[in-house]
Fold each of these.
Amino acid sequence: MTNTQTMDKIVALAKRRGFFYPGSDLYGGLANTYDYGPMGTELLRNIKNLWWDSFVTKRADMVGLDASIVSHHRIWEASGHVATFADAMVDCKNCRTRLRADHLIEDATGKNVEGLPLEELDMIIEENNIKCPNCGKHEWTKVRKFNLLFPIQLGLVEGEGGSAYLRGETAQGMFINFQNVLNSTRVKLPFGIGQIGKSFRNEITPGNSIFRTIEFEQGEIEYFFDEKKTDWEALFNSWKESMWEFVTKKLGVRAENLRWRAHTDEERSFYSKKTEDLEYQFPFGFKELWGLAYRTNYDLSQHQEFSKKDLTVTDPQTGEKTLPHVIEPAVGINRLMLTVLADAYTEEENRTVLKLSPRLSPVKAAVFPLLANKPELTDKAREVFKMVQNNISGKVQWDDRGNIGKRYLAQDEIGTPYSITIDFQTLEDNAVTVRDRDSAQQERVSITDLVSYLHQKLV
Ligand code: GAP
């Protein structure tokens, strides 16, 4: 099976089983948008809850934030997004396909050219005689910059007063609320602010399904510290460890499919002292999953200058003022979802299984009466269903459609760890058959022990 086939199969399963569908599907679709179905919604929620729990709830040095998506144009002028948040694009003059120049070159030559000047990209396209992947011609416009921010006009206010942007990253919400958080809570340096929320980018290139979309969710942290008192390299490494642990231990992604990649000088932002990406080996190659950047105090100093407000922190002991530096771990929640789906996707001789960590599974257990038309079985199965539903955390699914084999296959494809069948023997011995998703092995478990059995297994 080729990598493209694998990706196609994951996308087909996602649609077939309700993880995600093309956006605006009923009207022929809208490029680079997706809608998340019943299973996808549960999976996203489980990922977000784990992220929030690990990085905000369970850390004494972190607090949460939920800033507005619609935001003042000055924020994005100060942050540099209005001037520089742009992709290098090139158009095919023959078939009018518009592509990201770095992606075109990378696909044709395997070289990473992110951050190179436009003229150099033109030269590489020429020298390598790169052809349009759509029509096969080599008839390109010059490479041009295309800004990714979505400007919006508010209400009836004309001109500057009504001009705003949909946020292009959640990060700026943390910077512009830095003083608010400092003044309204008991935090002191070093501390971090974490946020999960939607961001919007006018991405042109159709990505690999939900890998790159125009509307997506980010989980970002700005970790503020006094650079005179903190060893930033040690802090950077401790965040690397936390990110690695989250992906491998909490999400259960296989370590052999992950690697770190340091940004080259060309691709690193001028204000960043160090940036590394945690990359995952998707079916279409190793790509950025989670970025980690030491951004110095660039953002706070820009907002201080543009807003003319003092954003410094005063040391209570020495009275010394400092403008904190930040280390920023920034991940896409939807990209985490694609990662866990790709990592869990398994084809076996007679079935396709999503071997998701039970923590992530959209449905934790399914309950089936062996036959749907036997009230003695369905009554008992309803009793078991209610008991399980009331006593384990997460979704429990009832299924009495089709035969047991089909029900197992459906649960395997959504990654349900345990399927419980109530049969005629249950009415005699008060025990059920529990089938394990990964091994497909079945065992009899007494109904009295069922909840504690599931508690032990679903950790
Ligand atoms: N504040 C820094 C920042 O936003 P980024 O590398 O542009 O950095 C962070 O984005 C993460 O957000 C990426 O590592 C990726 O997981 C996710 N991401 C970025 N653009 C995305 C898009 N168009 N669609 C889905 N996820 C995206």
Note: The two ends are 34 Å apart (CA to CA).
Amino acid sequence: MDNQKTIAQEASLEGIGLHTGNKAKIVFKPGQVDSGINFVRVDLPGSPVIKAAVENVSVQAKSPRRTSLGKGSAEIHTIEHLMSVLFGLGIDNLIIEINNNEIPGMDGSGLDFIQAIKNAGIKELDSPRNYFVVREPIYAEEENASLVVLPFDGFKVSYTLNYEHTFLKLQFKSLIIDGVSFESEIAAARTFCLEDEAQELQQQGVGLGANYDNTLVFGKAGVIKNRLRFEDECIRHKMLDLLGDLNLLGQPIKGHIIALRSGHALNLKLVKKILQQKQKTISGGIAIGYQPVMGQRLEAVDIMKILPHRDPFLFVDRILELQPGKRAVGIKNVTINDYFFKGHFPQRPVMPGVLMLEAMAQVGGIMMLSPDENRGKLAFFMAINNVKFRKTVVPGDQLVFEVFAGKIKSKTGQVSGKAYVDGKVVVEADFMFALAETNES
Ligand code: ZN
């Protein structure tokens, strides 16, 4: 089981911001299940909380060469290296108190943040991580830069860097990212700039806290007053930045990111694209006004041509999306008139968990039995595994079931599914079915 994580106890560190030059102290505190990463400006009246989410990102033009959050007049600059470390270590929930407007730059990499989190200890919480699983390519583009994310069982980044500078010509790196590879390959890579642009940037108020120790400055003869930690330290730092920005999605992701010269602005554009996609594909999304992404839509009469179930044991009102043998999305509007509420429980009506499983299995049945070769068969349970009930379902809720096929053979079928209410998972399970000819049963 891949559970959510936070830290075991508090930790703190302090330093100078790379861009403002302001001194700040940050304190890490454990976060609750499903709370995400939250920054707290403890130096401002009312200690405003800013969630690390793409909708809170400040306009890029106002604070170039970094990723910053803003809410009202409260701002927090240069969150990306810390956010990257949290992504790399798989920390889902954390409170970060800060007494100024910029995260300390430390040595320009993620090392000190890793150390602080590890000193605090990583604590597993009693709830599974909710991955965004990439099902189809999503992309974002700018002049001379591109980002694509493809389906992949795991998380991988392939980056291509190419600058008009002798020491920053073509570099390519591809890496499956987990806690171990992040720490050994990415975390220590420091931020960088070109000597030619350094002065101009500082005149614009960028990099006021930067020096030759915390920033690699590339001159005509190479790095000035410093030594590289990796021969390709710059591309590793670009990957570090990308992971930090991607963490503003607010949930871990399964996919393969292919990046060509991307920077903060484009990274954030991709995060927004992913969020749009998420709303379209239901996982965490909305069913009302839902437009099918692919496949067909079935009403009750069509459902009854595929499933033998009838009232009061048909628990699917409509199929919003059907890709026969692959994927289906179905809904059930839960109302007080549903007969089971009469006994479960009249004083406090709650939909029985086993009926939610039955309903999800019916959506799975429609998906499995809709290809021509399986038409007319019946599906019987052989096993139900990995069941998690996360929230109760009550009259007025709309249950949205999303099911995916595992191996479907002529006599057996595997299906995994999640049910959502208002975009939140209420139950998930894996099913194994026996497929039988009607006359065999
Ligand atoms: Zn950076």
Note: DSSP finds eight helices and 25 strands in the chain.
